Amino acid sequence: ANDQYVLLQGATKGNGINIFLMGDAYSDRQIASGRYEKDMRKAMEILFSEEPYTTFRDHFNVYMIKCVSKCEGYGGYKKWGDTAFNCTVKSNGISIDGDTGNAKAYAESIVGEEAADESVMIVIMNSNVYAGVCYISTPYFNQGNYGNGPSIAFFPLCGNDEVFAQ
């Protein structure tokens, strides 16, 4: 449904490369208060502060998908309860497990399966710990086309903007 996402930026050049921003461990209360959107917009601006994204910003569609969790935030590396992507930080920040299928399903609900297969999905965890991981899928691996396929990144807010930007 259209109320489940907001187009934060539309491409003005080309067909538009899709980026989907989603949050884990954000409650409906945090979405209604505007905190969720503030965090997603901050992530978008940080992404576009780095090259080559700065130069090619006008080639991207950026969607904020409103993903509601039953609990708010994490206690250290542990989540308080049920979350939209069931993210779990492993080995003190070395790795994160998350529901990549759910992230892809959210993207597919907006742009369809084919376009989602060529998209970037970013799940921002409502946590102050330092961690991060990116999963890159290669659905065309057997065809020798290694550059195509979705990527899904999981990382937390990290507690301060400078570390978050890293």
What descriptive keywords fit this protein?
6-stranded mixed sheet; two-stranded antiparallel ribbon; 166 residues; alpha/beta; single chain; globular
Neighbour order of strands in the largest sheet? 1-3-2-8-10-9
Low-confidence segments, given as residue ranges, are none
What's the overall average pLDDT, rounded? 87
N→C terminal distance: 33 Å
Secondary structure: helix percent: 10-25%
Task: List the total number of helices.
Answer: 5
Structural summary, described in words:
A hairpin with a 4-residue loop joins β6 (88-90) and β7. The protein contains 5 helices and 10 strands, in the order ββααβββββααβββα. It has 166 residues and is an alpha/beta fold. The strands form 3 sheets. It has a 6-stranded mixed beta sheet with strand order 1-3-2-8-10-9, with helices on both faces. A two-stranded antiparallel ribbon has the order 4-5. The mean pLDDT is 87.
Topology:
Blueprint: E1 5-9, E2 17-24, H1 28-33, H2 35-47, E3 60-65, E4 74-75, E5 78-79, E6 88-90, E7 95-97, H3 100-111, H4 113-116, E8 120-125, E9 133-136, E10 151-156, H5 161-165
Parallel strand pairs: 2-3, 2-8, 8-10
Antiparallel strand pairs: 1-3, 4-5, 6-7, 9-10
